[in-house]
Amino acid sequence: MRNTEPKDSYGKRGAYLVAMGISVVVFLIKFTPHVLNPTHYDWLMSYADCPTEYVSWQFYRNTAWHFPVIGTLEGYDYPTVTGIGLTGAIPLLAIPFKILSPLLPTDFQYFGFWFLACYVLQAYFSVRLLRGVSTAYSYTISPIQLILGSVFFILSPALLTRSGHMNLCAHWLVLWSLCIYFEPANLRQKFFSFLKIVALTALIHQYLLLMVFGLAFATYWKSERIGQKPWLSMTYKSLMNVAGLVVAMILWFFVGNFNTSTGRMTQIGFGKFSANLNTFFNGQDEQLLMPSFAVNEGQYEGQGYLGLGVLLMATILAIVYFFRKKQAHFFKTRFSPLVFITVLFTFFAFSHIFTFSHTKLFEASFFVKNPPFDFLSQAFRSSGRFIWVAHYLLMASVIAHFWRVIEHKLAMGILSFLVLLQISDVSPMVTREHKYYDFDGYNPSVMTSKTWQKITEEAERIVMLPLYTWHYKTNDDYIHFARVAALNHKSITTGYLARPDWDAHAVYEKKVVRSLEKGELGDETNSIFITSKQSEKKLQKLSESGQIKAFTFEDYIVGVPLKFEKTIQYLKQLPNCTSTQFDTEGLAEFLEKNKNETILAVVKDDGAWKLCEEAKVQLRQMGSDIGKLQLRGSMAAIFQNGKLIFEKITPENEAIVQKFKKGDVLNSFTFKNDLELHSAGAISGNFGKVIIDGKDLSLSQRGFNLVILDKDFKVIKRAYFDTFDDCYIGAIK
Prior knowledge:
- By secondary structure, this protein is an alpha+beta fold.
- Among the domains are: 268-405, no CATH class; 454-579, no CATH class; 587-732, no CATH class.
- The protein is 43% helix and 14% strand.
- It is built from 25 helices and 22 strands.
- The strands form 5 sheets. Strands 11, 12, 13, 14, 17, 18, 19, 20, 21 and 22 form a 10-stranded mixed beta sheet that branches. It has a 6-stranded mixed beta sheet with strand order 6-5-7-9-8-10. Strands 1-2 form a two-stranded antiparallel sheet.
- β15 (665-666) and β16 form a beta hairpin.
- α7 (172-182) packs antiparallel against α8 (187-202) and α8 packs antiparallel against α9.
- The radius of gyration is 29 Å and the shape is globular.
């Protein structure tokens, strides 16, 4: 197919090369050369979602080939059978490297080269986009202008702050789509160009794919009419998008995107991971020169900051237009389809909750209940990412306008100054990950030590208890054990996936819990059990029934079936490894032990997800209507002498702030101090406080936070139990 890009001159080709050279320099400064060593994986185990994306690739390498669904991934988050397309491992690269896997070293990663490719392609398509815009609006553009303009795209804050999600760094796909919109070509040529983009994007990330579809629709809409009847022309053009959708669905099938059912998708996170109305001029404390504005938790996903250079350029343009009394026709005619689609993406990025800084301006909750919008809000919960379309269109528009209205020599001087200003302003974003990338090695014992590989060598599966959580002894330590499992070619009952198989989880978890409660191994006769000290009680009955030997090593509890004699002997001889003495106290035991005192209880974030039946029974016996507590719901309660004095339970969108004054009497209970009980789930505020005389005495952790008082309202002890993970995970002080 003929290239639709404007014809190159020698100077224009040089602009591409220089821009790509600049992108390589930015890449090397940001990521350091360390990441380009394909056998260095340490930097991937340190930042954001990179660890799970790397480990997903390792499990995919180990999975036997499945046909025709070649992207099938097994063993990670057992018994989930998912697809490499539902991970961040980038199917476009994971599949060919899986073919080459027998020739590759054990520790092999391609993500460093992926980052480099994203930055180089960002530079290439930024030059191409600026050329396309200049051609569309009939003005000349010099190579040096192209180079200076490309710097703004290479240093885009939306790209610089995105490296924690590796496949989402492919912003060049958005730029490429905008190129097709502006470049002179007939509709047929543009259709086949978008088919290529759709095919690539389907093998990279779903969010980017929706952006590409939107920009393709705008491009077809803008293109020449097909036939004489407008409605027939739009039908044909709509069918072009349908053709792209068919291509995407076929590729999704092959990469395993349909392996996991979407029947239990959830809206949790939609409205939280959104864009703030201040996004275009707010660097969220990562810029150097512009002031920062507040954003709500999770709104980093909607990073659309343009940078001081672009903002000042836009200000200069506004002043020029004002004094020339000249109205821009940039948006009124030719840009209407693109602006329409961009506005739709922008509103979706803001979600149904419009916020400026911390202030909620408007909430359109009725949209969330609308079936089509309901599906979008579940499939694309981090809606803030869709601000990228507006981000890049605004950047291209401002730069293009600047060249059109400012005298050439003056424009070059001002533009050079603005580039330097942009570089200075976003420089903290360039170096933000140095502490993760530029170091000699990341060596937690669980991940690098051969000891854990030896401990799990005889097993077929590593059963992490509690099942399907990410925090055992320390935050996110699940990933270290997942790596051990991958190195040993074992399955493991934990993992971080975009779409886990919740139904398979529920069936498997019910079976395992039932066996543990009976002190039987059940179907896990070939499994090794690993848990933390807080959850060691889960292995107590298995140990007491003689089904396993339990050991404590590196503050983890290892349960080994008696048949694994080599493993047991190895653990007995291992330095600093001891037999486990079971002595645990969970939420149910804590409530029972302290029921004769006054118990103040509040829930933070979530307390319902893994609230065990024993705790529910104990709470009901004390008078609680605990069955009303839902996922992410709020709860505040007071118990005295084993009886309920006060309780309030609300759904996920409603927080609780309950205040009592000294001397108040409630159900024969007299308050001897001022008391406030604050509870909020993750969506309604994410807090849990027990405030007595103005001082918060709770531990303020996820799950149930409890404060025990004596008869004089003095604190005896404080505790929390993270019942989002397990009734036995927590602390008592």
